[in-house]
Amino acid sequence: MKKGIIGKKLGMTQIFMEDGSVVPVTVIEAGPCTVAQKKTVENDGYDAVQLAFGEVKEKHMTKAGVEVRKHLKEFRLESASEMNVGDVVSADTFTAGEKVDITGITKGHGYSGAVKRWGNHILRMTHGTGPIHRQVGSMGANSSPSRVFKNKKMAGQYGNEKVTVLNLAVVKIDAEKNIIAVKGAVPGAKGGIVFIRDSVKA
C-alpha cells in the first residue's frame, strides 16, 4: 500500500457540496501518528513501519525512543524504506477525492438469536406455532443426512468483529485539526479506532 494511518471515529454528519447536494460523511480524527518502529528486508524480511496513535500516560507504557502512544499498527507501505523512527504521519497524507479502505471493529451485540443476527423470518403467530416464533426453524432433513450442516445460520455472538469497508471517498480534509471526512458509514462505535489505507480496488 502507498498510504496508511490510524484514526479515531468521531461520529457522522452531513456536508453540503457546491452543487447543493447533501453528502453523509463519517468524521475521523486521523493522526498525527509517530513512526515507533521500522522493519527492513535485511532484519525482518520485509519493509514496514509501525505507527503509534493516541494519548496515554507515560507510566502505563514502555518507551521506544519516541513519544508514548496508546495504539500501534504495522503498515507495509511502499515508502517504508524512506521513513525513520520519529517521523510523523498526519491527515494531509490523503487528499480530497481519493478512495480509501477503512478497517474497524463493529459494535458488539452479544449473544443474539437468528432473527436479529441473520434476519430470519419470524414464524407465524397462530395455528399452533408458538411459543417458538423467533427460533431458527428446521435444522435439515431427519433420516438423511441426520446431522446439521456446517455454517448453519443459528444464534450466537453477533458483532464485535473486524470489518473492512472498501472504496470510501474522501470528501474533505482539515489538516490543522487532523480531521478526515469520508462519504458513507465506517465500522464501529463513536470513539472506536480505525485504520485507513489507500484503496486496493480503486
Shape: elongated
Radius of gyration over all CA atoms, rounded: 23 Å
The class by helix and strand makeup works out as mainly beta
Low-confidence stretches: none
Helical element count? Answer: 2
First-last Cα distance: 12 Å
The H/E string reads: EEEHEEEEEHEEEE
Biggest pleated sheet: 6 strands, antiparallel, barrel
Residue fraction in strands:
35-45%
Proportion of helical residues? under 10%
Layout of helices and strands, plus pairs?
Layout: E1 4-16, E2 22-30, E3 33-39, H1 41-44, E4 48-53, E5 71-75, E6 88-89, E7 99-105, E8 108-112, H2 114-118, E9 156-159, E10 162-174, E11 179-183, E12 193-198
Antiparallel strand pairs: 1-2, 1-12, 2-11, 3-4, 3-6, 4-5, 7-10, 7-12, 8-9, 10-11
Folded structure, characterized:
The protein has 202 residues and is mainly β. The protein contains two helices and twelve strands. The strands form three sheets. It has a six-stranded antiparallel beta barrel with strand order 1-2-11-10-7-12. Strands 5-4-3-6 form a four-stranded antiparallel β-sheet. It is elongated. The chain starts with a strand and ends with a strand.
List keywords for this structure.
mainly beta, six-stranded antiparallel barrel, four-stranded antiparallel sheet
A few lines on this structure:
The chain is mainly β and 202 residues long.
